[in-house]
Amino acid sequence: MLAGRFYGWLWVDPLMGIVGGLVIARWSWSLMRGAGAVLLETVPDPAVAARIKETIEADGDRVADLHLWRVGPDHMAAIVSLVSDRPRDPAHYKAVLNDVIPLSHLTVEVHRCAPLREAA
User: Fold this and answer.
1) How many domains in the chain?
2) 44: closest CA among 68, 73, 17?
3) Burial of 32 by CB count in 10 Å (0-12 exposed, 13-18 middle, 19+ buried)?
4) What is the pLDDT of residue 43?
5) Residue 118, in any domain of the structure
6) How much of the chain exceeds pLDDT 70, in percent?
7) Is the pLDDT of residue 120 over 70?
8) Do residues 13 and 70 both lie within one domain?
9) What pTM was estimated for this model as a whole?
10) Are the beta carbons of 14 and 2 closer than 8 angstroms?
11) What range defines the domain where residue 16 resides?
12) What pLDDT does 79 receive?
């Protein structure tokens, strides 16, 4: 701006206005994307969801439904609904998941299913 005043460059002021507008537009776009992701409850990190699923399914159980969302900076919550023919207590699944992925809040629903019979 001082160069425009001392050297008579009248175009510096509008140029700085455009640069400022671009900086604000970029910042507002990232703010809208972040707020939209929270409001639409998108999965914060697909790798975390995959690790939860792999951990539960390692013992032969099956994840029927998984909801994962961010509840704050570096804090996530999850609701896991699983189906098993040898179900364990929800506290067992919570302990296993908290050893792998630290979650601020975790709800586990366990549903029993009949074991598959082998064809004769």
Assistant:
1) 2
2) 68
3) exposed
4) 67
5) no
6) 90
7) no
8) no
9) 0.61
10) no
11) 2-39
12) 92
At 23 the pLDDT is 95
Higher local confidence (pLDDT), 6 or 105: 105
pLDDT digits (tens, 9 = 90+) for 13-70: 888 899 999 999 999 998 888 787 767 766 677 888 899 999 999 888 999 999 888 8
Neighbours of 61 (CB within 10 A): 21
- Please report, for the domain that includes residue 67, its CATH number: 3.30.70.1350
Q: What tokens appear for 113 in the block?
A: 């299913």
Structure tokens at 110: 């366990």
- Is residue 93 within 8 Å of 80, Cβ to Cβ? yes
The rounded distance, in Å, linking the Cα atoms of 8 and 69 is 55
Q: Give the 3-state DSSP-derived string for 45-76, with helices as H, strands as E and coil as C.
A: CHHHHHHHHHHHHCCCCEEEEEEEEEEECCEE
Residue 30 is encoded by which pair of tokens?
A: 């990232």
Beta bridge partners of 110: 82
Q: Which class for 65: exposed (0-12), middle (13-18), buried (19 or more C-beta within 10 A)?
A: exposed
- Quote the tokens at residue 72: 């704050």
CB atoms under 10 Å from CB of 76, counted, come to 21
Q: Which own/partner contact pairs does 33-40 have at CB distance under 8 Å and 24+ positions apart?
A: 38/69, 38/70
Calpha distance 28→19 (Å, rounded): 14
